[in-house]
Structures
1.
Amino acid sequence: MVKKNTCVFISGQGSNLKNLIQQSRDYNFPINIKLVISNKKNAFGLNFAKINSIPYIIINTEIRNYENKIIYNLKKYKINFICLAGYMKIISKVFLKKYGKLIINIHPSLLPKFKGLNTFSRILKNKEKKTGCTVHYVNEKLDAGNIILQKSFYINSKDDEKILRIKTQRLEYKIFPEAIIKIFRNN
Ligand code: GAR
């Protein structure tokens, strides 16, 4: 099997990145992580790139045309698959067109519910019975591309934001790799 040359985009802790790096060591897992891109220079997740000797690039999104720098590096590293893993920046229409290959994202809610930011506080405020996480294709609309996989759990009355995050992320570590396997199963 030819593994997909993958770039993971992060902004923060990078626990999903860490998990994907571990998974990709498996011969049968369909991706190899060749590049990590962060829009935050102090993102903790960059450490996982460093300790695993994966090239990483920090992008200053304040600069005009910063997406061109991303495109340049995606070409340089022959990237043909992108995973957004806690990347807190919207991907522009122009970028999607220029890149033209698969991009997926993980989101900590049962989409189409609770798109966007501050997911856990809104879930609690709305007194939801269930929540979970979703892996979906990225299109030009925020958190709106076709769903690849979703997993849910029941919310306990004692769950606060912190606990919801922990429970959600535990599921994320399962569904992100499962979704990737599902995408490339027949390739
Ligand atoms: C993840 O829980 C992911 O679902 C969320 O950010 C977290 C990143 O954690 N993404 C979004 O909220 C995107 N809208 P990580 O950096 O430890 O992987």
2.
Amino acid sequence: MEKNKEIVLSGIRPTGFLHLGNYYGALKNWARMQYDYTCYFFIADWHSLTTHADTRELKEITRRLVAELIAGGLDPDLCTIYAQSDIPEIPELYMYLNMLAYKGELEKTVTFKEKARKQPENINAGLLTYPVLQAADILIHRAHYVPVGKDQEQHIEMTRNFAERFNHRYGEVFPVPRAFSYTEDLVKILSLDGSGKMSKSEQQMNTIYLIDDDDLIRKKIMKAKTDQGPASPDSKKPEYIQGLFTLLGLVSSPDIVEKFEYDFNHCQIRYGDMKKQLAEDMIRFVRPIREKAAALQNDLKQIDDLMAKGAAKARISAAATLTAVRKALGFKYH
Ligand code: ATP
Ligand code: MG
């Protein structure tokens, strides 16, 4: 790792298989950032407990995610990949930050309100303090940038507040981190029925996973929602059609996109043909990632070694931060 590079942190919850949304919304950027910054990417296994209390599959999903992240472009020699639960410094920082977080601001968080609505039988305190744990994840490496999707903007803002409060009260320890994106518009990959976004834990038949085999990809895309086509030239596309064009733009060549745009604007589009083309181009994109991930997963030792190495690297940075934090707080008796 080079000195003086700015620090980047991002994570992903082990709640299911990686999908196109994770790839285009997160992983693709991470794979690019690893060349420009000192990057920490982690599997947020503690975070998954707030919504997925059953831990029986956690280990398997975590290892599989690591394999998928590497297959999708992360290079463990360029960036640090680790599991959150391997870094005991995080919960200590989380505890200090909890003293700086107010009940009112936590209750106002959009994701908390959403999740509380979805699981009224389990509104646990961890769900409420999720943004504080996330702040600890970021601040433990004194990160400057956090590449995240649109859904996470409010959490970054809260992290900034906690960092500022800490610095103000106890002395400058943390850089105030910022959300990061290479492009102005954050990508959002819609589910294939246009009803929401692709997701690890919901919408499984309307989400394309990087492990889906060729036939399943074909099947999902051929079932994607369409209609009879536009009634007048140059119409505005309904969301579910726009979603398909977005996917086409990501995996197909420009002349193909242009052809279907032309057909749409001239009211001669045949969605069956477009979906066939999209399916074949999608398969071409997914197949090598799927195959690489499968090969890696067959070598559990390699994954475990890599996670151990990542954890050791991450702990060096985490321990240095925690020493600075304890010193600022005055917890140093001998
Ligand atoms: P879950 O359903 O368990 O919440 P998820 O699919 O929403 O899983 P997360 O682990 O919450 O995935 O998010 C990982 C990263 O992927 C985040 O940076 C998030 O913004 C991004 N992301 C998730 N879904 C999409 C999507 N459909 N389009 C673009 N980016 C996405
Ligand atoms: Mg999510």
